[in-house]
Amino acid sequence: MLKRLTTAAAAALLAGATAAAAQTDITIGMQLEPPNLDPTGGAAAAIDEVVYANIFEGLTRYQADGSIAPALAESWEISGDGAVYTFDLRAGVTFHDGSEMTAEDVKFTLDRARAEESTNAQKALFAGITDVEVIDPLTVRVTLSAPDGGFLTKMAWGDAVIVAPESIDQAATAPVGTGPFMFEEWVKGDRVEIVRNPDYWGEAPALESATFKFISDPTAAFSAMMAEDIDAFPGYPAPETLAQFEADPRFQLLIGSTEGETILSTNNADAVLSDIRVRQAIAHAIDRQEIIDGAMFGYGTPIGTHFAPHHPDYVDLTGQSAHDPDKSRALLEEAGHGEGLTLSLKLPPPSYARRGGEIVAAQLRAVGIETEIENLEWAQWLEQVFKGTDYDLTIVSHTEPMDIGIYARPEYYFNYDSPEFQALMNALTQATDPAKRSELMQAAQRHIADDYVNGYLFQLARTGVARAELRGLWENAPTQANDLTGVYWEE
Q1: Using CA atoms, how far apart are residues 25 and 440, in angstroms rounded to an integer?
Q2: Where are the alpha helices (DSSP H) in 23-123?
Q3: pLDDT at position 90, please?
Q4: Whether 460 contacts 331, CB under 8 Å
Q5: Chain Cα centroid distance, residue 28
Q6: Which of 125, 270, 295, 405 is within CB 3.0–4.6 Å of 355 for a Cys-Cys bond?
Q7: 3-state DSSP: the chain helix, strand, coil percent, rounded to 5?
Q8: Which residues, other chains included, contact 211 with Cβ-Cβ below 8 Å and sequence gap of 6+?
Q9: Does this model's pTM top 0.85?
Q10: Residue 12 confidence (pLDDT)
Q11: pLDDT tens for each residue of 356-368
């Protein structure tokens, strides 16, 4: 009897230990698989969603509330003229390969990002840097061509994470960073696995490991969550089923906001679309609420410019491009397209784009604009639309924070070249007074709305689902990240 009791007790202890161990793992669902894992060399948001704050860290970082906090730089000093930043780096930080992180790595990172041959998708973040100087192993001085009131925020972007020359060549497939998690494995088409970094300089995360599972089909995402094969799906792609999760005590909803301006992007260099009357006609053909209701099942906030509605400097310009089919037809007639017009509409995989694209196509058809819809995989979209600008219209959500500055880049895929807007952005960069910066940001919003650069649809909602016991996931998305540093299972 004693032996049988002891065996039973041991089995119970083993089962308990197994259950406890399971609570330090997590499987995160993602709709899009990243094309690579180097945030300093790729534009896809899915890259940061895996690696930001988990594998890679920058001098500064975004926190859950959108504020900027110290990261690899524990402090800094700004010169009186606002053009020189001296960063004090944390001591004892090592990369996952065991090499020490020093000021030389910061210099390498920033010089590489701003180099003429740089492939950094946000190269403009570093354009104001004129010199990066190593003062000592833990001190680096960055000199700018002019004051930049947003420089600390720029250094918090995923495109500005610190990398090392010894491991940069493998960053795309086996990234080496300084973060609380280390890359373990990437099974293409299925998942990326990361494990806790035992030598992390900061507070150790509660999780021992995490798996990012890629499920592109909304129906499959629903099934995986219901079967509890997935613990959380922060960017859940099937909002029509959220009510079922809300009614199920096994789950919790994580509904918040994002930095994702979802837009009907327009190729302003196209012979037809270069005419502001055509772009204005497209804007007035759009019924934003119908798109939000039909594609997002009511989740989303209408926007009339490229700026997040939750930001205190947001200007509501939706009335300027209100749904007005008669005005749209009149503008097309005036522009010489009264007999009709046909445009390409190339759509990436996210459901907001595919579902929204069908609705937009119907709305445009109602005013005399036919669209030739082409559904592209993410890699195709990046190559054809984002890089090649081979498109007329597309729908995409720009999830980078405070990214209205992209309209100051003539080579950006919108092909929008406005010296007046570029001057506004230059003035904003140099402004340090909060009231002046606010004034300039509002002027910038009005400028692109007045030019009808794109069709502004809605601010993407953060529609997440998670197991009820899970804690620490971001509700809002101030940047494109699935930060697991504060995630834990509640016992």
Answers
A1: 46
A2: 45-51, 103-114
A3: 98
A4: no
A5: 17
A6: 295
A7: 35, 25, 45
A8: 25, 26, 27, 28, 191, 192, 193, 194
A9: no
A10: 43
A11: 999 999 999 999 9
**Inter-residue contact 453 to 305 (CB < 8 Å):** no
**pLDDT tens readout for residues 5-20:** 344 444 444 444 444 4
Distance CA 295, CA 381 (A): 20
pLDDT of residue 3 exceeding 90, the answer is no
Cα dihedral 151, 155, 158, 159 sign: positive
**Of 80, 60, 72, 62, nearest to 138 (Cα)?**
72
For a pLDDT cut of 90, what percent of the chain falls above it? 87
pLDDT (0 to 100) of residue 432: 79
> What average pLDDT does the chain have?
93
**Beta carbons of 122 and 40 less than 8 angstroms apart:** no
Pairing verdict, β 369-375 and 341-347: parallel
Contact yes or no for 176/97 (Cβ under 8 A) = yes
- For residue range 315-326, list pLDDT tens digits in order: 999 999 999 999
| Single-letter code of the amino acid located at 153 | T
Structure tokens at 299: 């989740």
CB atoms within 10 A of CB 304: 22
Going by C-beta distance under 8 Å and a sequence separation of 6 or more, which residues neighbour residue 361?
A: 345, 371, 373
Helix (H, G, I), strand (E, B) or coil at 235: coil
123 and 110 Cβ atoms separated by less than 8 Å: no
Closest by CA position to 167, among listed 90, 86, 112, 91: 112
Q: What is the DSSP string of 416-452?
A: ---HHHHHHHHHHHH---HHHHHHHHHHHHHHHHHTT
Residue with tokens 């959380």: 232
As a whole number of angstroms, the distance between CA 45 and CA 425 comes to 24
Strand partners, 398: 261
CA geometry: angle 170, 171, 175, nearest 5 deg = 105
Q: Residue 397: is it exposed, middle or buried by C-beta count within 10 angstroms (0-12/13-18/19+)?
A: buried
Alpha carbon distance 214, 216 (integer Å): 6
Which DSSP category does 176 fall into? -
| pLDDT grade for 285, boundaries at 50, 70 and 90 | very high
H or E element at residue 369: strand 369-375
Confidence of residue 351 (pLDDT cuts 50, 70, 90): confident
Q: Which pLDDT belongs to residue 43?
A: 83
